[in-house]
Amino acid sequence: MIKIAIDAMGGDYAPKEQVEGSMKAVKMIDDIELTLYGDETEIRKYLTDETRIHIVQSDGVISMGEKDPIGAIRGNRKSSMALALSSVRENENDAVVSSGATQALIAGAHILVGRMKQMKRTAIAPLIPNVKGTSTIILDAGGNLEIKPEFMVQQAYFATVYSKEVLGVENPRIGLLNIGTEPGKGRELDKEVSLLFEANDKINFVGNVEPKDILDPPCDILISDGFTMNIAMKTIEGTAKGMGKILKTELKKGILGKLGMLLSARNLKNFKYRMASDEIGGAMIYGLRGVVVKAQGSSKSNGFYNGIRQAATIVRNDVVNKVQAILESEVL
Amino acid sequence: MIKIAIDAMGGDYAPKEQVEGSMKAVKMIDDIELTLYGDETEIRKYLTDETRIHIVQSDGVISMGEKDPIGAIRGNRKSSMALALSSVRENENDAVVSSGATQALIAGAHILVGRMKQMKRTAIAPLIPNVKGTSTIILDAGGNLEIKPEFMVQQAYFATVYSKEVLGVENPRIGLLNIGTEPGKGRELDKEVSLLFEANDKINFVGNVEPKDILDPPCDILISDGFTMNIAMKTIEGTAKGMGKILKTELKKGILGKLGMLLSARNLKNFKYRMASDEIGGAMIYGLRGVVVKAQGSSKSNGFYNGIRQAATIVRNDVVNKVQAILESEVL
Question: Integer distance in angstroms from the first to the last C-alpha of chain A?
């Protein structure tokens, strides 16, 4: 049995969607067992089936808009997030799934789960949808605003193992997000990373990828420093939001337009659905001694279920130990 | 008369669209006189009205995909781009408009027009459409991949004068593109720039702006280093392109969907039109001793006309001298 800790109180719609997503997960996935950390009374309002689900009472909550993530974790050791994370360190569980505040989860994972010995920096790696209908690993989405090229090599190893083992990509291609496709483009960091990647036979480096191809990239993994990637991710969000607004005003114009929009309503909904990353699952925090998956804060039951499914696949395929083996082979 | 040099051979559809845009410009704007630099035979194929339009024969072309911009300019002093730029240095013209290769134009402007004495770095500043239907100045869109905070202050002065004088904004608000809105967010660069902007009473600093608000920003000018801004700009392009593809496949689904799309065709076209920046005009290169406007490489006549209109407004309102005065007052 794969044992997964659920932070039932983290997320915009907690605990309802977390509890419903958990029930769906045990129904759909045979080899998992879940422990829900949270307010038992609240959880029981939504829990209608306790098969392979346990509850552990928590005390205190990390708020979604937490400004002092480290302080929040240190001051709330009995919160649902902290208890779930600690249970992994204690080997009571194999993984944690949380849709709580991202920075608090990263800080908590560092303090309560701990970094892999050889891994110099952790990273957070979400999946984004692409035009082909598959998903692209985005790395690092905000962990390290400034980072050394060597540390990005380690992160690339992790993403390669993840892509193979969890997404089933045979020989995952890595692209460096950059302002031009030609070799030698970018800042000093980008130039150094390119050289390191090219010289490394464990990395299938396909070169620079321009952000104009970000939703249709020639690679399976797109990498940059945390600042740049965060800017790119939030720009996708902003453009989608802005375009949606403009599209809505334009489409509604005129009587024919209104009728057209009415007829297109279902398709427009499908469009929104494909753009939402809820279907894809969560972001894994790379480089920890355990498996921590961050589901979106706005996760509904289905998105949260996908996060659990993802965590189970990561554990089942022994991702952390496989990365560990690569890092150890480097040290020798 | 405002005298404007036209690089008639630069751009994906040159010289046709450049010539047609020029004829439109003299018809619409009374106080301008244009000199078209290019292949006279080619230009005359499209030139049907020579009112206030002169032609100067050029020799050699800077290709749009030029990989060695400095070499291209140095080796093609008689090209349409080089001749147009040189004419500004010689005071034969007040401004240049070109839709030629961006990097070659920036390099050429440095070599042939020259930097303002006090200005430490030039910058390229396009306008992008926003949800409100106006436009936002984006700075720097690729000139300086790595830059000192003090140099960004100078660029902020330039953008402020431009916004006031050319776009008519009374008290232009400047936002720093960053990964979070709270003060103290971002890299060392971002933190230092924030402090400098806040302490400067010539800059109306409104703080950090997240890229999720990039098409609906709470400011008139959005600033960052050239690398970051280039990533953001190209991510907007990539998201718009990717979303367009997904939208198209989704909208076409089913019979009702097809009918709906048919009825919405005109509105969808308007939508595309609003997203295209052709209507808005070109990007000014800030910090030169003259006025250089870069129209999009894919400019059609209307986009190119807008670039000329913009250049005329910049000259008419004496933007360069007004910035110069601010920089000189700083030195004292």
Answer: 34
pLDDT in tens, B280-324: 678 999 999 999 999 988 889 999 999 999 999 999 999 999 999
What ipTM was estimated for this complex?
Answer: 0.85
Show residues of chain B in contact with A236, CB under 8 Å.
Answer: 235, 238-239
Please list the residues that pair with A3 across neighbouring strands. Answer: A33
For the domain with range B1-119+287-332, which CATH number is right: 3.40.718.10, 3.40.630.30, 3.30.530.20, 3.40.50.720?
Answer: 3.40.718.10
Q: How far is CA B161 from CA A250, B30, B137, B168, in A?
A: 33, 24, 12, 10
Burial class (CB in 10 A: 0-12, 13-18, 19+), A120: middle
Whether chain B has a CB inside 8 Å of the CB on A177: the answer is yes
A268 touches chain B (CB under 8 A): yes
CATH architecture label of A1-119+287-317 = 3-Layer(aba) Sandwich (3.40)
**Residue B114 and residue A131: Cα distance in Å, rounded?**
44
DSSP letters spanning B39-78: -HHHHHTT----TTEEEEE------TT-S-HHHHHHH-TT
**C-beta neighbour count of B183 within 10 angstroms:** 13
Report how far residue A215's alpha carbon sits from residue A167's, in angstroms, rounded to the nearest whole number: 18
Q: Which member of B130, B212, B274 has the closest CB to residue A234? A: B212
Fill in the DSSP letter of residue B115.
B
Q: Is the pLDDT of residue A11 over 70?
A: yes
Whole-number average pLDDT of chain B: 91
CATH number, domain A123-279: 3.40.718.10
Q: What is the pTM of this model?
A: 0.88
Convert the pLDDT of each residue in B32-76 to its tens digit: 999 999 999 999 999 999 999 999 999 988 888 778 888 889 989
Is the pLDDT score of B78 beyond 90?
Answer: yes
Class level of CATH domain B127-278: alpha beta
pLDDT in tens, A306-326: 999 999 999 999 999 999 999
pLDDT band at A139 (very low <50, low <70, confident <90, very high): very high
B contact residues 82-141, partner A, Cβ 8 Å cutoff: 130-131
A325 φ, ψ (degrees, to nearest 5): -60, -40
